[in-house]
Design brief:
This protein is mainly α. The chain has one domain. The chain is built from two helices and no strands. The longest helix is centred in the middle third of the chain and has 104 residues, at 2-105. The protein is rod-shaped, with a radius of gyration of 46 Å. The relative contact order is 0.04. InterPro entries: MRVI1.
């Protein structure tokens, strides 16, 4: 029995060191879990930033496309109006010429101005 109590007394510092080591392992385990969680959050934040940047680029591209579309549309509208004006001027001068000929030759000429307006509208 004496032998057992001496041995227990000798094991006390070792047991104390073992308990301290177990506490340190527990602290390390909790720290690793927190670090892992924070690393996931950090990675998710970086991924979100990359996606945000990509989305901003796409939105800028869409805005540029809209601007180009509107510019092309207004240019085409201006060109359309210019063509209509030129064609109407040509038609009106042609009608004037034809009305002069109809007076000379005795037939009635029907104006095409109304027909052209209906087609272009």
């Amino acid at each position: 029995m004496k032998d057992m109590s001496v041995r227990t007394m000798e094991d006390q510092p070792a047991l104390h060191e073992l308990i301290k080591m177990q506490q340190h392992v527990n602290v390390l385990e909790r720290s690793i879990n927190r670090l892992s969680s924070k690393a996931e959050i950090y990675g998710a934040v970086h991924q979100e930033l990359r996606m945000n940047h990509a989305m901003n680029l796409m939105l800028k591209h869409v805005e540029n496309l809209k601007e180009h579309f509107e510019k092309d549309r207004s240019d085409l509208e201006i060109a359309r109006k210019a063509l209509i004006d030129n064609n109407l001027n040509d038609v009106l001068s042609h009608e004037r010429d034809c009305s002069e000929f109809s007076f000379i030759f005795g037939f009635e000429y029907t104006p095409m101005y109304d027909m052209i307006r209906q087609i272009c509208s």
